[in-house]
Specification:
Layout: E1 6-15, E2 20-27, E3 31-38, H1 52-66, H2 68-71, E4 78-81, H3 88-109, E5 118-121, E6 138-141, H4 146-157, E7 162-168, H5 172-181, E8 185-191, H6 194-201, H7 211-226, E9 230-233, E10 244-246, E11 249-251, H8 259-273, E12 278-281, H9 288-298, H10 331-340, H11 346-353, H12 364-370, H13 385-395, H14 405-413, H15 420-431, H16 441-447
Length: about 450
């Protein structure tokens, strides 16, 4: 392992002709990282006149957001910012986010969280927020899972103007879904520094990076370049639930998808970047089971195209799935099967996964964890244990439980603990749609008609 003392935010730049942004970082000012994001995209026209001060303001925040991919290879105490100036509120904002973002990483790698995340300014340059007007168009990030497809369906039913956007790279799953929608994809391309791969080969630290955070700051700049007012995420209420506690802090694998993040991010945008861009999750009111039910009933056209298995999207192409889009072995596959099973026939569920995952005994331990019966909730984008409990309960009608090891365990060890009223309360809880202050009022009133 290669060790370092300090991390530096070196500089960033933007070419208005090519629409490529470059970001530079270093450990100890001698081991450098160079990242590039290409904001150019065919079939989409940027606004004609770009303001340098607005560009720099957006890219400075993106510069601070992107560094996590490199910093996590060896977390240092000091973080020196050379590219511009962070005021005290910005420092507090970034410290909070990186603590929540990196707590899982530190916990998993057994790294002490003491004396980390100390930002120090090496520049006196200060950016000022400059307001500008935008059209009423919406950007919807197209994921590979059902949630974004539900948001798209709600937009289509209300004849609202939107475009699809994908960050980093596209794939056959996204392309096939986009073709069903009859939409082009606004693709924002990312090139990670090769220096990071060199550190990984030296067995430096490595772990999951919550990409939602990086996408969020990237999309803010896209809104300015391509004239969009609304960034429409598809994060659900269940994303607020946590995995475990460590060092007096809650660890939530999905923190960058949570309401806590969304509210703080909204405040940051309004204070430092733009009064016109609105970032929100359309499905924030919904629990995951509600989304699964809606998807099963309204979006059958996507059944053979969507996937939630992360093995499709590994950085190393040799480790990606080749012959299928579901590995049927990971917590994500197990979870998605469980919450869709109550709402689909046997033929429909098999057409998606190719087999019945409740009959796979090698998933028994995974399902025990998802049910909250054994160990902590897996560090994956999976949701509340009670949702899985209810999904199991409502799926029993399809099975002779003795033929399934996990259903037999569920019946003997979980089902017998509760009476009918408990499951009726769960049904009521997860069918509920609660309101909040995230969705802009103008859109809320339109979309409520179809919920």
């Amino acid at each position: 392992m290669r060790e370092f003392k300090s991390f530096y935010f070196e500089k960033f730049s933007f070419d208005k002709e090519t629409l490529k942004a470059s970001f530079e970082y270093s450990f100890d000012e001698n081991y450098f990282f160079f990242e590039e994001i290409d904001f150019s995209c065919e079939n989409f026209s940027q606004i004609k006149k770009l303001d340098d001060d607005i560009i720099n303001n957006f890219l400075f925040s993106l510069h601070i957001a992107l560094w996590i991919s490199y910093y996590k290879s060896f977390p240092t105490e000091k973080l020196f910012v050379k590219s511009w100036f962070l005021d005290s509120n910005q420092k507090e904002f970034w410290q909070k986010f990186y603590k929540n973002w990196l707590w899982e990483f530190l916990y998993t790698n057994k790294i002490s969280p003491q004396n980390l995340f100390h930002f120090e300014n090496l520049s006196n340059k200060i950016f000022e927020k400059i307001d500008f007007s935008l059209s009423e168009k919406s950007l919807i990030p197209l994921g590979w899972w059902k949630d974004s497809l539900v948001s798209i369906d709600l937009y289509e039913k209300n004849n609202l103007d939107f475009d699809l956007i994908v960050f980093w790279k596209t794939d056959s799953i996204k392309q096939n879904c986009a073709s069903i929608i009859w939409k082009d994809i606004l693709l924002i391309k990312r090139k990670i520094s090769p220096s990071l791969l060199e550190l990984n080969e030296l067995w430096n630290y490595n772990w999951h990076v919550p990409i939602t955070w990086i996408i969020a700051f990237t999309l803010l700049f896209v809104c300015y370049l391509y004239d969009y007012k609304y960034i429409v995420l598809s994060n659900e209420k269940s994303a607020n639930s946590w995995n475990t506690f460590w060092e007096d802090l809650v660890i939530n694998h999905q923190w960058s998808k949570s309401l806590d993040f969304e509210r703080d991010f909204k405040k940051y945008i309004e204070t430092y970047l733009s009064s016109d861009i609105k970032y929100f999750s359309l499905l924030r009111w919904w629990y995951e089971l509600k989304i699964a039910k809606y998807f099963a009933e309204n979006n059958k056209k996507y059944f053979s195209h969507f996937s939630s298995c992360n093995n499709n999207f590994k950085i190393d192409e040799n480790k990606r799935l080749k012959q299928t889009i579901w590995c049927n072995s990971c917590p994500k596959c197990a979870f998605v099967f469980a919450i869709l099973r109550p709402y689909l026939s046997e033929n429909e569920i098999i057409s998606i996964f190719g087999e019945d995952l409740f009959l796979k005994n090698d998933l028994t331990q995974t399902y025990m964890e998802l049910l909250g019966y054994d160990s902590i909730k897996p560090f994956e984008c999976v949701w509340e244990a009670e949702e899985v409990v209810l999904a199991f309960y409502e799926s029993l009608k399809f099975y002779d439980w003795k033929k399934s090891e996990i259903l037999e365990i569920f019946r003997k060890n979980i089902l017998t603990k509760y009476d009918l009223s408990y499951f009726e309360l769960l049904q009521k809880k997860f069918a509920t749609i609660s309101s909040d202050d995230i969705i802009p009022e103008k859109l809320k009133q339109i979309l409520l008609k179809n919920i």
